[in-house]
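Exam revision sheet. Question 4 asks you to relate a sequence to its structure. Input first:
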Amino acid sequence: MIWEEFRTPPKFGCELPGPKDRVSGDLMKILFLFLAFFLHADPPKKVFFVSLPKAGTHMLIKAIELMQKERLRWIGLENSFHFSPLWDLSYSHKVTAGHLFPYPSIEKVRLEYSDSYTKILLIRDPRDIMVSFSHHLRKGMIWSSLPTFDYDRFVSLTSDEQLKETLFFPNQYLHPGVCFPLAVLWIQDPSVLVCRYEDLVGSQGGGSDEKQFEVLKRIALYMGCVLSDDEIRDIGVKMYGGTWTFRKGNIEGWRTAYSEENKALFKQLYGTYISAFGYGDADDW
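Answer key, structure tokens:
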């Protein structure tokens, strides 16, 4: 295998708010809640958008920012552990986004702050997620820069060998597979709007423009964005591709990506999530 003994975890994401930011944010929240109580009004819900890694995260971020015409707050990989819904609610941004890493701080949004957030989850066929992650490692991005990752050895392997190594990616590095169990809980939660990558890519990614329009319109309504049909279609054209992690984006690439050995390995490690995510029966693959 390509892994050495775990050493220092990498640093990812943006900087956390400093002490002054936290104090000012706390005062803003107290004032906001006081005014809401005085006016007998419920505070407006924020949008909390999470996705599985390699499920089209940046594509939907682009669409959401086009819908609301402003930037959202992104929770980086390192900051996911320190994320606080209480602090997040005190800031003025409308949308918070991140990956669905298995941290209590992320799960708090669903379990303890559900009434304060409108929640959106983006999923993808788990077979395609792991294929995309293998290509991500091959390009030397993020996880490939970890101090214990032997990148030179990885790129010297065949594509089948690279995918096999990807399926065995160590859990301490928060690869996409460790997010699958938590995603099942979010999918089963009726307060969460679940969107599929395959429905969002449109004809540019091998999908359907009609499905893309329907999903984008549902997301806009869920977020409280008033958009015309033409505006929604224009967002569908602009959202595909052009992000820094984008590679190919076509759906069902897994059909030609797995050898028989890797297919058996995937079924052993992640097979239950094919049906849990609504992508058919693993035994039929």
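Marking note for examiners. Residues 1-23, 36-41 have pLDDT under 50 and may be disordered.
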